[in-house]
Amino acid sequence: MPLFPGGGTPPNAVPVIGRPIRVTSPEGPWHRVVEALDERGSVMVHALLSDWVPENLDDPELRPVLGRDWHRYQAMRHHHVRERFAASRLLLKHVAAQAIQAPPATVELAYKPGGRPYLRGCDQIDISLSHTEELLLVGITRRGWIGVDAELEDRSMLVSGIERQVCTPYERTMLSQVRESDRNQEMVRLWTLKEAYSKAIGQGMRFRFNEFGFGPSGHPVQVLRPDGSPGTGEEWAFGTCRVEGRYTASWALYDAGFGDTDDTRAGTMLDEGLVTALLHQPAEAPQPAAEATAATDVPLTGAGVAA
Q1: What digits encode the pLDDT tens for the residues 288-306?
Q2: What backbone phi and psi angles, to 5 degrees, belong to 224?
Q3: Alpha-carbon separation of residue 122 from 39, 125, 179, 270 (angstroms)
């Protein structure tokens, strides 16, 4: 995958994703999510961890919902890790279920190298997941690729010369011109945009973050090369917003030029044999690759995030 992929939809044809929609429980409300998918082909959904953690983490009814993730989940020993894993997968599956009009238990997650989740058997749908502190964030699109990321807006990021490790020369110059009181918040914005873009192109943190960057707040957002020249075209769309009054959330969306795939029902996307297999598959399955650790749980210099 090139660092600056392009060649998708012609200029000005990329839809804008609205603000993340809050969903408070598996029961919804889901109508706004469905409406956003119908109108734009893409949507972001956010939730609070406490709203989605199962009352009983050992409830056997979780097994069919978690599917192939069940044994991986059972092997987790730390209580808060199990809570976060269960809640994030439940939210992700329920959001995907709205997109493909299927029961959440029939939505099967698989994982690419590095831990990025995708919907098994549903190539028309792309998904992305981020979680930090109490926030869960899901992005989903049927137009191409999507990446989302979120961080606490006051997370301390300007530490120990971190700018040289994660910022381009252009970004370092730009940051030096930002008021000192606003500099850390600007760094959080840049970080979440970098995470979102790297997730969208399926690379996570395997690309050095100081090899691509973004411009200042208040300007049109696009990926820039280290010297500040354009790296992507208008087939890419980006955005950043504040969520729940304390988080910075960013998204990256690439329109692959396929148009809006209106019919993404599971029964029409999959052949009959595969649908039957998904509906009746056993929970036992090979373990997926280890999920990348949330960026808020490790030092910045070695961070990775849930895709």
Answers
A1: 333 333 333 323 323 334 4
A2: -115, 150
A3: 20, 6, 46, 7
Residues facing 135 on adjacent strands: 48, 132
C-alpha 198/C-alpha 195 separation (Å) is 5
Instruction: Establish how many alpha carbons lie within 13 A of residue 25's alpha carbon, considering only the half-sphere containing its beta carbon.
Output: 3
Q: What value does the CA radius of gyration of the chain take, rounded to a whole number of Å?
A: 19
Q: CA of 104: how far to CAs of 28, 89, 276, 279, in Å?
A: 13, 10, 15, 11
Do 275 and 263 form a contact (C-beta atoms < 8 A)?
no
Report the Cα–Cα distance between both ends of the chain, in Å, rounded.
16
* Gap between the Cα atoms of 68 and 89, Å rounded: 11
pLDDT digits (tens, 9 = 90+) for 163-207: 889 999 999 999 999 999 999 999 999 999 999 999 999 886 667
Predicted structure pTM score: 0.81
Q: Where are the alpha helices (DSSP H) in the chain?
A: 31-40, 49-52, 62-66, 70-74, 79-100, 162-166, 169-176, 180-200, 266-269, 272-280
> Top-level CATH class of 21-302?
alpha beta
Q: Which two tokens stand for residue 114?
A: 């590095």
What is the Cα–Cα distance from 152 to 59, expressed in whole angstroms?
31
Q: Rounded to an integer, what distance in angstroms lies between the CA atom of residue 207 and that of residue 186?
A: 21
